[in-house]
Amino acid sequence: MLKNLYIENIAVIEKTSIDFTRGLNVLTGETGAGKSIVIDSINAILGNRTSKDLIRNGAESAFVSAEFTELSERTANALESFGFSLEEDGSVMIQRELTLSGKGKCRINGRPTTVSVLKELGKYLIDIHGQHASYELMSPEMHITYIDKLGSFDEELEEYRTAYREYTHLRNELNKAVTDESERARKLDLLRYQVEELEEADFYIGEYEELTEKKRIIENKERIASALNEAHEYLSGGEESDGAVRLLEMACDSLENISDYMTDVEGIASRLQSAIYELEDCRDELTDLFEESDTETENLDEIEDRLDLIYRLGKKYGTTIEEMLDFLENAKKELEYLKKFDENRDELKKSCIEARNKAEALAKSISEKRREISRMFTSSVKNEMTYLDMPNVELVIKQDKCELNSNGCDDIEILISTNPGEQPKPAAKIASGGELSRMMLAIKNVLADKDNIDTLIFDEVDTGISGSAAQKVGFKLKEVSKSRQVLCVTHLAQIAALADSHFKIAKSVSDGKTYTKVTPLDHDGRKYELARIIGGVEITQTTLDYAEELLNQN
After folding, report:
1. Cys-Cys link to 543, which of 33, 206, 410, 535 (CB 3.0-4.6 A)?
2. Are residues 215 and 332 in the same domain?
3. How far apart are CA 310 and CA 315, in angstroms?
4. Domain-located, residue 286
5. Is 17 within a domain?
6. Is residue 94 within 8 Å of residue 65, measured between CB atoms?
7. Which of 527, 463, 528 is nearest to 490 (CA)?
8. In this structure, is residue 413 part of a structural domain?
9. What is the DSSP string of 141-180?
10. Cα distance between the two ends of the chain
């Protein structure tokens, strides 16, 4: 449940902290006092879209935090799936900061997270039913979700949607495969040409680097030969001078002549001998390189033609030989596929038909179950609405077959008649605001055990109702609050009188600035607040007595 809500610099609320309780929590106050701001703050915690206009005038940022306790195992598992865990006391703290720059921050138990994670987690924490939720009744595409939720079709729908995704994938592949014959012939000709051109080129990995190296050698052949010859001469010596190898040998001989008298030179002589071996190896390698360069006979024009071919084909098939070889491999596969077009198409068509039959069978099974659940749904909702002072209501579920889609093969719409003798019609055409609110509350009650959400918020669900209907709406809210926490924003004394915890939201002006304060009310405070709701500006003893009577009754 929502234990604490802290709000800072949200609209007219400068700073407030609200400690909610189990049961029915009611928020009342004058129109414009800021009741909707509390709901907006909760929406921010739930990851819903916000506007920088929510930030209080003169402030650079706004902050909201919410502490949730006594979480269900389902919610704890969801939290863990997002990479978070409960605190030691079993609670979770969600925080969100809004800034004028738009760079807000979100945290769960002090660790950074994203708005999208808050939105997903919020589905497990709180269900808000406001005036906008009644619009669901005017959106027929939403009605199927009520039936599916009551029927607990999650597993069946997941199995169906897996089959439906497979069918749509195969259908799309089949559509691509049955392009017109001329297009297929054109594609075949193009692929044959591309494969032939690349196979004739016969590239291999590393060829470009090898050719580039050969080209450099041929272009600098004389310079290379001269340098190799000079290096060889410096090591081996010539007619007029000794080379490095001979000079080191002479040095080594001199040291060995005195090694009997000075043993320290033995180590130096040994090192010199090692150097002689190394230089002799270098001299031999230079000889080999010189001979190779001297016998280089490959034509420079042939190398340049080959490099030019790599460049030209690279512009069509890839910037590197590796990419061109990959292109060739893929082109050969596609060519083979198109050559076997008829065989592949027939196989794909067969698989597509099988996938569609499987999806249709699963959709039909769900459709039949929906028809059964629809009767249970209309009966249960009608009973709830009859209690809510709509005794003549008639509900019909219109279930039509449609093309397969992600929800199956059903178009479902709830039709309603509120007066005797009227044919049931779409709710948007005949229901008033008050009737829509009561109908939505009735649906919420019917689906209450299926929601698995600990906190329900009803934002002005009393719109358009009064008298006994209002009191019965209050009784329903009270009944729901016995099994879960309920927060209710209301303008009606009959509902407010039923609260387990009552909060007054009041607005004041000081130094030209508007401030909103949220105050928990004791018995006397509740009596005066109920009297204000009942009697308006002037609170009389009569209204106070009636408020006291309401409190005592409840």
Report:
1. 535
2. yes
3. 9
4. yes
5. yes
6. yes
7. 463
8. no
9. GGHHHHHHHHHT-HHHHHHHHHHHHHHHHHHHHHHHHT--
10. 23
Residue 537 near residue 496, CB atoms below 8 Å: no
Query: What is the count of structural domains for the chain?
Result: 2
* Burial readout 354-377 (b: 16 or more C-beta within 10 A, e: otherwise): ebbebbbebbeebbebbeebbeeb
Query: Which residue type, as a one-letter code, is found at position 489?
Result: V
* Residues 204 and 312 both lie in one domain: yes
Residue 124 and residue 189 in one domain: no
State the residue for tokens 């609050």.
481
Residues (pLDDT < 70) of the chain are 130-136, 177-181, 238-239, 293-298, 342, 428, 430-433, 451, 536-537
- Torsion angle in degrees (nearest 10) through CA of 182, 186, 188, 194: 180
pTM over 0.90: no
Evaluate whether 418 touches 391 at the Cβ level (below 8 Å). no
| Residue-number span of the structural domain to which 243 is assigned | 185-339
Q: In whole angstroms, what separates CA 86 from the centre of its chain?
A: 22
Rounded distance between C-alpha atoms, residue 492 and residue 180, angstroms: 69
Task: Report the distance separating Cα 71 and Cα 49, nearest Å.
Answer: 25
What would the pLDDT profile of 262-313 be if each residue is shown by its tens digit? Answer: 877 888 888 888 888 888 888 888 888 877 766 555 688 888 999 999 999 9
